[in-house]
Design a protein that fits this description.
Layout (H helix, E strand, L loop, with lengths): L2 E6 L20 E2 L2 E2 H10 L5 E6 L3 H8 L8 E6 L6 H10 L5 E6 L2 E3 L4 H8 L5 E6 L8 E6 L2 E7 L9 E9 L2 H8 L12 H10 L4 E5 L4 E3 L3 H12 L5 E2 L2 E2 L2 E3 L2 E3 L4 E2 L2 E3 L2 E3 L4 E2 L4 E2 L3 E3 L4 E8 L1 E3 L4 E10 L2 E2 L4 E3 L4 E2 L8 E3 L3
Amino acid sequence: MNINGIILVAGEGTRLRPLTYTLPKPLIPIMGKPLVVRIIEGLMSNGINNIYVVVGHLGFLFRQLLGDGSSLGVSIRYSEQRERLGIAHAIHRAIEDGADGELIVHLGDNYFGEGLGRFIREFRESDYDVYVVLTRHKDPTRFGNAIIQDGRIVRLIEKPREPPPNSLVMTGIYMFRDSRDVKKAFSTLKPSARGEYEITDLIQWFIDNGRKVGYSVTNSWWKDMGTPQDILDLLYLMLDEVKPSIEGEVRGEVNGRVVIERGAVVEGKVHGPAYIGRGSVIGKDTVIEHYVDVESGVVINGGSLSRSLVLSEASLDLGRARLVDSIIGPKSRVRLSSGNYSLILGEGNSIVSTA
């Protein structure tokens, strides 16, 4: 039977505006690589080379970056979800466009600390019709909840106002044995109160019709990039695992686990864990504190940064100012003289403060 990966990237990322006005969430790079590319690499390393990418908002940017997938060693086809009608609808769009057989569905703004290998292996070696990955979360109301009895999922609830005691939440990976069953299940669905075809309702059809629905609980961290803080949390988790590598030029000082890519120049101080991308310049009066990701072509002069993500080709003139818990959009310009700041800037924004 065929096996296809489906990556869902059609969302608008409204909680990440202004950043997502021009840059979809899955295209935000961390340590030099967009999240969607990391997901594709994870699927490919588990033998999944045929991938459907379901696009919507700014879909042309995915086509520009990924093309037909040949540069990544996979085959990519695109499906379009013109209206935001939910995850189940997006999966169905891919099936309509040719995704058949076994389906490994991955949300484009999710990332798993332990990778995908164990989940995909457990599904493929089992006889489950559907397989999902669950975890515990401090705010279960943001996600679909799974009610488990005697080791079985008996009911799924989408974003409950009052989560069941000890509930587990659904993460953003769903596996289906046969696309024909998914099509049949989808044909029975009606939009929810929020006007979407819910993934929880789709999988509930399998439960109600006596199909085998299995699950695993991830034994590592999982991040859903819904908010700016979620992106920064993901950055911190990934930097925690970074291995030092210096290919650029260090004229200043580097301490701890730091990656400095080729063509980067460090004249100031960089304290790890940190990442300095290709062609970026860290000026001699600049201090990069812990948990900072500076993407490619960035120029920073003066000041200090901590727990922040600076996207490509941004220019920061910080004087004696300190940036903390910030995301600076690509091609943005920031000029500060002093003080402490936490900024979320979209692409091409400009901030000047002489205070």
